[in-house]
Amino acid sequence: MYKRIISDTIVASLYKGKIIIMYGARRVGKTTLCNMILDEQAKSGKKTAYFNCQLLSVKSKLETTNEQILKDFLGNNDLVVLDEAQTISQIGLILKIISDTFQNIQIIATGSSSFELSNHIGEPLVGRSREFKLLPLSVNELKTKHNNFEIDSKINNILRFGSYPGIIDLPETESMIDLESLASSYLFKDILAFENIKNSSIISKLVKLLALQIGSEVSIHELAGQLGLASQTVRKYIDLLEKNFIVFSLQAYSSNLRKEISKSNKVYFYDLGIRNAIINNYNTLDNRDDIGALWENFCINERLKYNQQNNRIVNNYFWRSYQGEEIDYIEEIGGKLLAFEFKYSYKKIRHKKTFLRAYPNSEFKLINKNNWQEFF
Length: 376
What we know:
This protein is an alpha/beta fold. The chain has two domains: 6-134, Rossmann fold (3-Layer(aba) Sandwich); 139-375, Orthogonal Bundle (Arc Repressor Mutant, subunit A), CATH 1.10.10. Helix content is 44%, strand content 18%. It has helices spanning 6-12, 30-43, 56-62, 67-74, 91-101, 114-121, 139-142, 148-161, 172-195, 200-211, 220-227, 231-243, 272-278, 291-309, 352-358, 372-375; strands spanning 19-24, 48-52, 79-83, 106-111, 129-134, 217-218, 247-252, 265-269, 315-320, 326-333, 336-342, 362-367. The strands form two sheets. The chain has a seven-stranded mixed sheet with strand order 6-8-7-9-10-11-12. A five-stranded parallel sheet has the order 2-3-4-1-5. A hairpin with a 2-residue loop joins strand 10 (326-333) and strand 11. Helix 5 (91-101) packs across helix 6 (114-121), helix 9 (172-195) packs across helix 13 and helix 11 packs across helix 12 (231-243). The radius of gyration is 22 Å and the shape is globular.
């Protein structure tokens, strides 16, 4: 097991009058993290309890607004984890009652998909909750068990098999078997149920098309044509994929200069193992033509984790001019731009000067396999 960096922030947020909401994809480690927190709190003398809200016995006790029934169920515990809380009808209202009535009980509620839990929570918990997002393991979390040399040797496997907690240390064959299972309808279960989509092949085709376009700009119009769907429907499905922690997107940066693209998007995957499973390509890095896209996705993904773990509030973009000049990743923070280009092998960047001339109050760095650890 790896120590999750976010756990320290969550523990520091306990017993301060807020419901803790933890979002994350299935099998990303939410239950394991909650149990670790429960164990630590129990050792410090707190009374704790864990409930799987998918169990009918738990659902029947929690789906009530009767304060006495809720009190009898929660008992005299100091800390209670409600795992997969989105399965509870009217969970937002119920958590509000608990928060307002039993202020001595700290609740941690987890959900496999942000859109589902958020929609159930809605207004009731405004001002009463603090939200956390748990992602696949980051490089800095791997460092809790491995030194820099060992981490460096793991990168090739991460680019092929991703960094899900239960997969990252498995042999190749077992990694592929687990990823096939995870990347099938299991990951899309919440989306299919939430939208009542009977034909899962549409979602599968969309995800495959996105997987083949990482590092490239995505045209909603072209995707709609390939899938035989309306553009609005494609946008909705991509939004659901984002809220289900399968993909994330970057918008193009522009300060309204006429020579810059400002309305396009790029889509990346939260886990490259899932992406490779979707296109059924686990080839070694010296035997594939998408190493540049994999490296770009990996670096941006890890940077987002780094920012989250260090509470860095930044705006994220990419940049491209109408002439085709492009910068992979831009961070806007404190009125300053930090620009990064990702190349697996060392290469000179021709477009750096164009960008720096347009934005003189900015910095530029090239991130390759020789200096990538400095980036995180």
